[in-house]
């Protein structure tokens, strides 16, 4: 049996505060981490009129950019004095996101290098985070922190109200008209439920104390694709954006907005059984899912299929030319055809020369020397003995190597 001490609870409070601060700061602009930490330690925090960052989708490696993103409010209630008995409640209200294609046509060589540097650093941060999590799991197997985390998940209640994520595109189609696609929810609710609905699914010999039971409800979920659309991301304030896009969500108590629905509004109820220790009790299923859904209808018009086909073709071309986007001429083909011929030949030569250079003895020797230097600098970094000049040198070496090389070097250190 694990006894919950004041010290362990304080440690867990700090861990929750650090996690939420890191999570929200990745998505929200101008987050006040100090006030967030004070609110969490007090048991309740409410954040209102939040604006999302433009680079939210960068970490997912998607060619998307947030035009406008707003969150009306988010509240978190953690009953520290009755932790493990009372529910932890998270409520998110009116999430509205408008995204567009993230085109690289106007990027210079410097901006492209900076973009690649940011992507690489995020990949390395993910690897380091996973390494720390694995170390923490091995060091604290069966510890109080695991028990607290299990209790947190067991009593967690999450609700989303009015979610609308909309994609607007005025460049992908051949005729350059704007089309829009969106995903809408009137609400999503995650809550703990009784064990009785699972009596037929669970064998009588299964120890139910090693499981917790959840129910997920999706209300009026739908996907639409409008072949012709008007922009919705031009609202002046975050409140206006949330209100405008909330009014564009199908709801039961009012007529549905006039969208071209690919999946018309439907309701979905999912009951889930989750094992508290899936790796320790192999005879207990990790997940059991019982799903109940209203009639599902999927429909496409020929014009919608044409929009999707042109969009895929456009994105495929963008991906193919992205490595040489900094060489791409600013003029059109008709205005300067000779420049475009030079662009085509430079792309081929650039690819050939880069591929051939990697197999020269000069490159192999340089790679070997820089690998040794990077490993020495990374060792100093882990010992917190890295000065400003050496830190700059470390970043320059990280620009030279690929992510998988850097992960291997750090492992060897």
Q: How are the SSEs ordered, and which strands pair?
A:
Blueprint: H1 6-25, H2 33-42, E1 44-51, E2 64-77, E3 88-101, H3 109-139, H4 144-154, E4 156-169, E5 179-192, E6 211-226, H5 238-246, E7 261-275, E8 287-293, H6 302-321, H7 337-357, H8 361-382, H9 388-400, H10 403-412
Parallel strand pairs: 3-4
Antiparallel strand pairs: 1-2, 2-3, 4-5, 5-6, 6-7, 7-8
Helix pairs in contact: 1-2, 8-9
Question: Which descriptors would you attach to this protein?
Answer:
8-stranded mixed β-sheet; alpha+beta; 413 residues; 10 helices
Briefly, what is this?
With 413 residues, this protein is an alpha+beta fold.
Describe this structure in words.
It is a single chain. The chain has 413 residues and is α+β, with helices and mostly antiparallel strands. 40% of the residues lie in helices and 25% in strands. The protein has ten helices and eight strands. An eight-stranded mixed β-sheet has the order 1-2-3-4-5-6-7-8, with helices on both faces. Helix 8 (361-382) crosses helix 9. It starts with 5 loop residues before the first helix and ends with a helix. The mean pLDDT is 79.
